[in-house]
Specification:
Elements (H helix, E strand, L loop, with lengths): L3 H14 L6 H8 L3 H13 L3 E3 L6 E3 L8 H9 L18 H26 L3 H12 L1
Antiparallel strand pairs: 1-2
Helix pairs in contact: 1-3, 1-4, 2-3, 4-5
């Protein structure tokens, strides 16, 4: 399971809510990983235009308010793909089997529906929603 998406949301919340610049080492301590992994995610977020800045003392900043950053944009940035790909087909179903002959188109259509629903859900949620959720849990 790939954790870049959840780590990216964590990082973006830290950047949004920190009153001072925060280093990749500080982010790594919060996320529970190493700083090189954080820097890789930061590079993907910067490439996608979600953050600006550079490594070091000056830190990174969001390029838009949290209300304008959808979770779909974050997902697409760090997963490095425009299309959602949650589910995948097994490689070699047998054409000699009635199930094997028909399973690919049946599951492909179902998987596409699930992935479209996932994308719509992420598009309807923002970084601000995550921040609000954390604030509610703190209170």
């Amino acid at each position: 399971m790939d954790t870049k998406f959840s780590a990216a949301v964590h990082i973006l919340i830290l950047l949004s809510e920190s009153p001072t610049p925060i280093t990749s080492e500080q982010m790594a301590a919060s996320v529970g990983t190493n700083a090189s992994y954080i820097r890789k995610i930061l590079a993907l977020l910067k490439k996608a235009g979600i953050i600006d800045g550079r490594r070091g003392v000056s830190g990174h900043t969001l390029t838009a308010p949290p209300e304008k950053i959808t979770l779909l944009a974050v997902y697409q940035a760090v997963m490095e793909q425009a299309e959602i790909s949650l589910l995948d087909m097994h490689q070699n179903p047998s054409d000699r089997c009635i199930v094997g002959r028909h399973i690919r188109p049946v599951l492909t259509d179902m998987f596409a529906d699930v992935e479209q629903a996932f994308a719509r859900s992420l598009a309807g949620k923002t970084l601000a929603d995550c921040i609000d959720g954390i604030r509610k849990r703190i209170d």
